[in-house]
Amino acid sequence: MLLNMENISKSYGPVKANSDINFTLGKGEIHALVGENGAGKTTLMRILYGMEKPTSGSILVNGKPQSFSTPADAIKSGIGMVHQHFMLFPSFTVAENIVIGQEPGKWNGFDRKAAVAAVEELSRQYGMPVDPNQKVESCSLGVQQRVEILKVLYQGADIIILDEPTGVLTPLEVKELLVAIKRLASQGKSFILISHKLQEIMEVADRITVLRDGRVTGVVDAKHTDIEQISRLMVGRDLAQMQRSTPKLGAPVLEVKGLTMPGDRGKPLVDGATFKVHAGEIVGVAGISGNGQSELIGAIAGLQAASSGQVTLTGQDVTGAPVRKIRELGLAHIPEDRYQWGAAKDATVVENGVMGHARRQQRFGLMRGRSIRKMVEGWVKRFEVKTGSLDTKVQFLSGGNLQKLIAARELAQGTPFLIAAEPTRGVDVGAMEMIHGELLKRRDEQGAILLVSSELTEILKLSDRILVMNEGRIVGELPSDEATEEQISLLMAGGKRQ
Amino acid sequence: MNISKLKNGIGALVQPVVAILLGLLIGAIAIAIVGGDISQTYAEMWKGAFGSFYFFTNTLSRATPIILVGLGTTLAFRAGFFNLGAEGQMILGGLCAAITALYLPGPGWVKMIAALISGIVAGGIWSAFAGWMDAKFRMNLLITTLLLNYIASLFAGYLVAYPLKDNTGSAAMAQTKMIDHSAWLPKLFHGMSLHAGFLIAVVGAVLLFLYMRFTVSGYEVRMLGSNPLFAAYGGVQRGKLMLYSMIASGGFAGLAGAVEVLGTQYRYLDGSLSTPGYAWSGIMATLLAGSHPLGTVASSLLLAALQTGGMGVERNTEVPLEIASVIQATLILFVSAKISYSFIKRKKARAQDGSVV
């Protein structure tokens, strides 16, 4: 075997991200690594690429034990990684980006001609056409991907880790990439492919290793398996059924009709989304992150513009309306990314807590300091937000604690409609139960909730109806008592409904 | 809670204090290089700034326009944008105040108040113009505010050199006629240069502090500056709020010009507002104070003291006036070092946000 990772374990404090993982890779093999978010794929690859040290276990390349403490060590041993988000300099040319770190030199520095020649040679050898003199910023994402792979090849990698390589590509570019991967493998390069898209994996991989909760739940030959089996291995746990009363549906609160949002290169980010959320129900949106959920939420909440379609909230057209108007009409919003949208890091707990409440908590334009503090203090107590004081800057709060504060703030808006995007990301089990309980309570009080989550368990536990998004389209709608995790993961991965 | 507040306060003070000490240290080296006596020079500097009641009030009066400009910059920085156009806004404010006081009929106090208001309005409009270009044409505020300075300064220079030129006196200076005595800002003490503008500046600082701290829109301005996406998400109307902050920011600078004209110069004299570098001192004061309104008052006083002290040094020693500029420049260098340091830290944090799933 070219690569042996033996009994790799990695703990972060009490959390075991990897336990006893064995992973092998042969010469010319394409080995896919799959699993849900947080299953431990990332940690394993970070260990292989020298970005993390394993707590225990060993890595052997060509039978020789290796210890990587930086990516540079890993690169020396012939391991290269193409990250999900490209690491290129947009204003530099393709050739400059590829040779960076090992630039051909001459007496007066960088030898541009040699670099271009080297890139041309490389591009011919591996059959990946690029124009060495083009600037990266004017390349399509598919070409940028190629540049990334060529960069890794230029560094002399025999083992190439591809992290979600097709996430940003158009279907045609995906096809080209898969063909290129296969050709490179036939030339003796080995690939580790991390992906959520099971169809692509079935198409290209030789072997598939499935991780769940930091453990290997299966290593299967791609020839002898199918998407259903892999989905089961990925999910494979019994759900703790929470008692949910039957929903008492009221009038529709949110109506979305034909919502479409343009993407970068002809591929719309949201493509004709149409659905309703009624009072007294939770509608879950399932999907692999990056399939248009963020943009859908952005359009409903007034943060992003849609190119066509209509959003109606409590009977009023709010398409393209300012956020304040939408909020006044009845929107509360637990945002997906707590640091980007949900908080101001260098503001205090109180200041972060009062957003959206300030205009209600005022007299003659002055904030009612005492009642605001009391309100925020109440949330801090109830949600057990661990903070030094109400005047601590939230950058000193842990992510989970900040999430609790944000959830409390938005639940307290008391609006008829609530967007809960990844409402429990990074919070501990106790707080998760509490937030879930609050969401269900809101629903029983005739609130309408749109729940967006990449955690299937969360979706299944809370939703009355489930919408599945794939590549910007709503590809399925299932009542939650009929839906199974396998069925949803299949739809999420772009598979067909049974 | 109070302890953590106190700690924050002390933490915020460490940087400027260290910057000041380093500034004085490098100033000492410069003094030694030009062959001056370090302790004597600093003693003269102290005397020049605070040595007597006369010098002290002189320092306060020098600080007045710096404070007002600094407050405007503070508001802009807090709202999250740059306003480097204080000089132009100040010039137009001063010019409009002079014209109003000269040509508006009525009793002196009416002229004075109208002149102050016209100064605010002129500065505000000039600043809002840059804001409008940003909103409409996506022109970078940093550049527009900076370049509008030249337009304002040269335009004002033209007006006082030709149509509004004072031809009554013998001197062929580019200046307006002198404003009637009744419209002057009253002096606070007989025979001293300190005028009521200083009180206006201090009251302005307190009002700005209270506004930022206790009002809803002050809260929104702070959140806009702290994380514009968070503000947008929470329903803060960015465009409107930004325009208002721009107007207010320019209004402060315009008021600085008006106060200087009505309290010290009594006419608009070409170059009288730009040569002493009030606007840039004001921006420095803001940086030094970390955009805190009351801190800006303190740092403006410090910068004014450096300048008046420098004059004292020049009067009584062989050391040139520029020594004060050396100290001032060093101060800014070390304060901006903090800014770029925290900027780098933020960049690093972003890079570590993880690119892998």
TrEMBL record, chain A:
Alphabetically ordered keywords of this record: ATP-binding, Cell membrane, Membrane, Nucleotide-binding, Repeat, Translocase, Transport
Pfam families found in the cross-reference section: ABC_tran
Listed transmembrane segments: none
Superkingdom field: Bacteria
Subcellular location(s) of the protein: Cell membrane
GO molecular function terms listed in the Swiss-Prot or TrEMBL record: ATP binding; ATP hydrolysis activity
Membrane association type: Peripheral membrane protein
GO CC terms: plasma membrane
Matching InterPro entries: AAA+_ATPase, ABC_carbohydrate_import_ATPase, ABC_transporter-like_ATP-bd, P-loop_NTPase
Signal peptide: none
Chain ranges of the ABC transporter domain: 3-238, 254-496
The protein's name in its UniProt record: Nucleoside ABC transporter ATP-binding protein
Source species: Paenibacillus taihuensis
TrEMBL record, chain B:
Single GO MF annotation: transmembrane transporter activity
GO cellular component: plasma membrane
Transmembrane segments: 12-33, 53-77, 84-103, 109-129, 141-161, 192-212, 242-262, 283-306
Location of the protein in the cell: Cell membrane
Keyword Membrane in record: yes
Keywords: Cell membrane, Membrane, Transmembrane, Transmembrane helix
Membrane protein topology class: Multi-pass membrane protein
Domain of life: Bacteria
Main localisation: membrane
Record protein name field: Nucleoside ABC transporter membrane protein
Record organism: Paenibacillus taihuensis
